[in-house]
Design goal:
This protein is mainly beta. The protein has helices spanning 2-19, 39-43, 56-59, 241-247, 254-259, 282-288; strands spanning 22-23, 73-80, 86-96, 101-111, 115-118, 124-128, 131-144, 147-160, 163-177, 183-197, 205-206, 208-216, 222-228, 262-269, 274-281, 300-308, 311-320, 323-333. The chain is globular and about 65 Å long.
Length: 337
């Protein structure tokens, strides 16, 4: 137990080192690491750190969700975008019973396809293959009854032709689950780190503090979640006052600023092997509902989850204006549990 607390305090004392180069608002580098790692995450609004269950894709974002039940499980996700842009995620979990530590590992990869390389006059000089990836390792342990602490260390690399950059980020998560397993609370300090090699000038990482709560109904097939993100900054909406005045846009009101921190979600269980997921992301709707281009479905996401023997199939779609982006995930248990 003393060793566990020692590890926790080491991370706490390291926080000032990592937080010196964080962005709490505006632009940041390596924003691709905020993309959802699994279809279930996409279906639950794009971010969820507290859902009750054993979902490896969610645990790759919040290491405190890693559990012993995930031992010998692997996860593969594919999310196609337009213009041949593809997102891939591959991860796995191993439990070390002698150390009572759950280890997670994974790769978060974004492939932008092949792009022509031209000079200033537009003459083609070949092509290049831009990509981003983050290789990560996670560890979690129970340090007190009903509590789990987890941490993730990520090496991040971006390759855009002659422009290359890399850095490292640290996540620390803490989860509390009730004794009856019907309620769960998580807090995550996300993307503390530094850019080792910059493209041209040093940039900050997309720092985030997130709080999540999930509640599973005892006598009804529902689970509800509410997630509050970007808690280190009050106004997390893009708001150009000069542009708004010129174009007739309204700046976000106080209540809008409050709701733009929130993501709400629900799971509907249709038996032990099948469930439906829905989510609503307030700030996504606010950002996408620009003048004369509003869509009723902006901010909404839906998905489903099917379990068959050792395999779990997940599908999700998220709505962005007239487009619906799809996400596919397969989770496989190497053990017959």
């Amino acid at each position: 137990m003393k060793r566990r607390w020692l590890g926790f305090f080491v991370f706490v004392f390291c926080l000032p080192v990592f937080t010196n180069a964080q962005a709490v608002g505006g632009n940041a580098v390596y924003n691709f690491i905020n993309l959802p790692y699994s279809a279930k995450t996409s279906a639950l609004g794009g971010i969820n750190i507290s859902t009750i269950g054993n979902d490896l894709g969610l645990a790759m974002y919040n290491p405190a969700l890693l559990s012993q039940d995930m031992d010998a499980t692997i996860h593969l996700s594919v999310k196609p975008f337009y213009a041949n842009i593809q997102q891939y995620d591959f991860s796995g979990v191993n439990y070390l019973p002698n150390k009572k530590i759950i280890l997670g590992w994974g790769v978060h990869y974004l492939d932008y396809g092949t792009i022509p390389m031209t000079d200033i006059a537009g003459n083609e000089m070949g092509s290049f293959h831009p990509n981003d990836y983050a290789a990560q390792i996670s560890a979690a342990m129970n340090y007190k009854q009903n509590f789990t602490i987890g941490t993730t260390l990520k090496f991040i690399q971006s390759n855009y032709g002659i422009y290359k950059s890399n850095g490292m980020a640290l996540d620390i998560g803490l989860k509390y689950h009730s004794s009856n397993n019907l309620s769960q609370v998580s807090v995550l300090v996300n993307n503390m780190g530094v850019q080792f090699k910059s493209y041209q000038t040093q940039e900050s990482l997309p720092f985030n503090i997130i709080l999540g709560w999930s509640k599973k109904l005892e006598n009804a097939p529902f689970q509800f979640s509410i997630t509050a993100q970007k808690l280190s900054v009050w106004n997390n909406s893009y708001n150009d006052i000069t542009f708004n005045n010129a174009e007739g846009y309204k700046s976000p009101a106080t209540m809008q600023n409050l709701f733009n921190h929130l993501v709400v979600a629900s799971e509907i269980y249709l038996g032990e092997k099948f469930n439906i997921n829905v989510g609503y992301n307030f700030i996504r709707r606010f950002d996408l509902n620009v003048q004369n281009q509003q869509n009723f479905l902006n901010g909404f996401s839906t998905g489903l989850n099917l379990i068959y023997n050792r395999m779990q199939f997940q599908y999700a779609n998220s709505f962005f204006q007239k487009n619906a982006y799809h996400h596919f995930t397969v989770v496989y248990s190497l053990k017959n549990k």
